[in-house]
Design goal:
It contains 2 helices and 29 strands. The strands form 7 sheets. It has a 5-stranded antiparallel sheet. A 4-stranded antiparallel sheet has the order 2-29-28-27, with no helix packed on it. The protein has a 4-stranded antiparallel sheet with strand order 3-4-5-6, with no helix packed on it. Strand 15 and strand 16 form a beta hairpin. It starts with a helix and ends with a strand. It is mainly beta. The radius of gyration is 19 Å and the shape is globular. The protein has 2 domains: about 15-45 and about 210-320 and about 335-348, YVTN repeat-like/Quinoprotein amine dehydrogenase (Methylamine Dehydrogenase, Chain H, 7 Propeller); about 50-210, Methylamine Dehydrogenase, Chain H (7 Propeller). About 0% of the residues lie in helices and about 50% in strands. The chain has helices at about 5, 25-30, and strands at about 20-25, 35-40, 50-55, 60-65, 65-70, 75-80, 90-95, 100-105, 110-115, 120-125, 130-135, 140-145, 150-155, 160-165, 170-175, 180-185, 190-195, 200-210, 220, 225-230, 235-240, 245-250, 255-260, 265-270, 275-280, 290-295, 300-305, 310-315, 340-345. It comes from Tunturiibacter empetritectus. Keywords: Signal.
Length: about 350
């Protein structure tokens, strides 16, 4: 996250969407439309950021400002929390499932926790404002991307120690890894997509994203070699992960901040702050948007669970926005206490 107002939902000023559900006739014959199946009230206060779905344990980890809420996705109930954070952005679960990593942008640490009881095990110093993170399998490393210091901290997962720092050409947003030695990350203030060599710990390409402003969320089709960057200006940039070639630029909803990809159905998703979920058919060369699902204002981050095909997004109800002042020219709407909610989206 480049700054708190970029993603933490208390900064959102988007108008509620008035879109009706849209699903093309051709696509409807092959797939059912997505719909909101459940709403789980989590409660609490404060803004939020990324979500991580763990298909093995059927858990959803939600970065919720000063804590990570952990939800059992079979029941919709909160089963615990990682406490004592200052401004949490995201969570990565280690492959063994026993250890989790939370980026705490307020303390400039990655917090390591035990997934059995959510107790903090250690804190790993990073650059300034660690935000998006990605696990890279071939090197068994965690890459924490630091929005303010514009670099990445490379962490050895086995020792839980930082083993390197990689300078970046601009402010990083969300990353992805192919688990074969390559990491990708959006560079928000340069409108580019960077490729990194995980073993050499260096940048190997900096690809422009023409027509994409402030790329944030990033999804990855590993088998097809395609990256999906969601951008301001209602665009999704589709990029060849081998060459950096621009493949398409479908129009999506406004204010996106996260993306997802369903490899089994070849669908790409964008969760948008205007209160919509955009569904893109990535099996077609034209990358048509086949559905625009109304969600809720502010639901701009998401997680996709490949084991169930469910999509999770979160938001809350907003109160009045205070009048602008010289000191606060862009005031934020208040978040109504205990209104924080998970939306469960599926095709059942």
């Amino acid at each position: 996250m480049p700054n708190t107002s970029r993603r933490v939902v208390s900064s959102l000023l988007f108008a509620a969407s008035t879109l009706v559900p849209f699903f093309t006739t051709a696509s409807a014959t092959a797939q059912k439309p997505f719909q909101i199946e459940q709403r789980w009230t989590i409660g609490g206060t404060g803004g939020w950021d990324y979500l991580t779905a763990d298909p093995t344990t059927h858990r959803l980890y939600i970065a919720h400002l000063t804590r990570v809420d952990v939800v059992d996705t079979t029941t919709g109930k909160v089963i615990g929390a990682v406490e004592g954070l200052t401004r949490c952005h995201g969570v990565v679960i280690a492959p063994d499932g026993k250890t989790g990593f939370a980026s705490d942008g307020g303390s400039n640490n990655v917090v390591v926790f035990d997934t059995s009881n959510f107790a903090t095990l250690t804190k790993i110093p990073t650059g300034t404002n660690p935000d998006g993170m990605a696990y890279e399998g071939s090197t068994n490393t965690l890459w924490a991307f630091n929005g303010t210091s514009k670099n990445a901290t490379v962490i050895d997962v086995a020792s839980r120690k930082a083993i390197g720092t990689v300078a970046l050409p601009g402010r990083p947003e969300f990353p992805q890894s192919d688990d074969q030695g390559t990491v990708f990350v959006n560079i928000e203030d340069k409108n580019t997509l960077v490729r990194l060599d995980a073993k050499a710990q260096k940048v190997t390409a900096d690809w422009p994203l023409p027509g994409c402003d402030s790329p944030s969320g990033l999804a990855f089709d590993k088998e097809g070699g395609r990256l999906f960057s969601v951008c301001d200006g209602k665009k999704m940039a589709v990029t060849d992960s081998h060459t950096g070639k621009s493949l398409a630029m479908p129009t999506i909803g406004d204010g996106p901040d996260a993306a997802g990809y369903d490899a089994s159905k070849k669908l790409a998703f964008s969760s948008n702050g205007d209160g919509t979920l955009s569904v893109v058919d990535a099996s077609k060369a034209t990358y048509p948007v086949i559905q625009t699902l109304p969600t809720m204002k502010g639901a701009r981050t998401m997680a996709f669970d490949p084991s169930t095909g469910k999509i999770y997004t979160v938001t809350a109800k907003f109160g009045a926005t205070p009048p602008a002042t010289a000191a606060t020219p862009r005031p934020r709407p208040s978040i109504l206490p205990d209104s924080f909610t998970v939306l469960v989206i599926g095709q059942d």
